[in-house]
Amino acid sequence: MLVFIREDVFVLFKYGDHVILRYVSPDNGEKFDRAQIGYVVEDSEARTVLYISSGSGYRQPERMRKDKLGSDSFGDFTDRTWKNWSTVRVMFPGVPYSVWAMYAAQSGEFTRWYVNIEEPFKRTPIGFDVIDFELDMLVAPDLTWTWKDEDHLANMVQYGIFTAAQAVDFKLYGLDAIGRIERLAPPFNEPWPQWRPDPEWGPLKMPDDDSAWLNLAVK
After folding, report:
1. Dihedral sign (CA 196, 108, 84, 78)
2. pLDDT, tens digit, for every residue of 37-55?
C-alpha cells in the first residue's frame, strides 16, 4: 500500500514499499510527463532499485509535445498501462542516468539492458522525481550497445527545450554509462538477468486521487 509521509520528512523506503516515480517535464518544471507506480527492491544511501511490473498503471497527460508538434500544451491525465516488459530500474545518487533490466511481460525472461539518461533522481515523500533527457541506450545481453532517440533529442534542441550544450553533456553522460558497461561495474556484473520478483508482486494501480502525487511540489 502506498504510504504518504510528511512533505518535510525524507526517509529510506523499505523492501516492498509502493512508490510513485514522477517524470518532471523538462520544459515546465511544475508539470509532469508521467507518473508511475512501482515496488522498492532496494533503497540505501548507495543506490535505489525499483521494480515496475508489466500491467501496472501509470498516468500521463494528453499532451502535444514540442519535440514533435511544436506545442507545449498539456491536457488532462489519462490512465495508461505499462506493457510488453517488466522493468528493474537501478538508480545511483548523483549519477545522470538509470540502468534498467528489462524482462518479457509474458515469460518474465530477461531481454536486455536499457540506459535512460536523466537528471539524477530526487527523493520525495512518496517516491522519486526525475527529468528525462530523452537520449537513451539499448544494451544487449552480451553488453553490446547502441544509441537510441538521438533524433528526439535533436528535436527538443530545435524547439528550445534543451540547449545544444546540454545535448553535448547528455552524450557525455552516455559515455560514462559505456564506461560502466566496459568495466562490468554494477549493475552489469550482478545477476539481474536471473532475478525474479517476489511472487506476490503483481501489477499495481495508481492512486485513485491524483492529488496524492500531483499536488506535491517539485523540489
Report:
1. negative
2. 999 999 999 999 999 999 9
pLDDT-based confidence at residue 149 (cuts at 50, 70, 90): very high
| pLDDT > 90 in the chain, percent | 75
Packing angle, helices 150-158 and 164-182, rounded to 10: 160
Q: How far is CA 33 from the centre of its chain?
A: 11
**Bridge partner residues of 112 (DSSP):** 102
- Please enumerate in sequence order all residues whose Cβ is within 8 A of that of 199, keeping only pairs 6 or more positions apart, or say none: none
Instruction: Give the other-Cβ count within 10 Å of 68's Cβ.
Output: 12
Q: From CA 173, how far away is CA 177, in angstroms rounded? A: 6
> pTM of the predicted model, to two decimals?
0.90
C-alpha cell recorded at residue 76: 488532462
Question: Do 219 and 30 meet the contact criterion of CB atoms below 8 Å apart?
Answer: no
Record: fold of 18-196: FomD barrel-like fold (2.40.380)
Task: Flag whether pLDDT at 213 surpasses 60.
Answer: yes
Q: N- to C-terminal Cα distance for the chain?
A: 24
Cα Rg for the chain, rounded, in angstroms?
Answer: 17
Set of cell numbers at residue 113: 539492458
* Domain regions of the chain by residue span: 18-196
Give CA–CA dist 135/96, Å, rounded.
11
Answer for the pair 195, 90: CB distance below 8 angstroms, yes or no: no
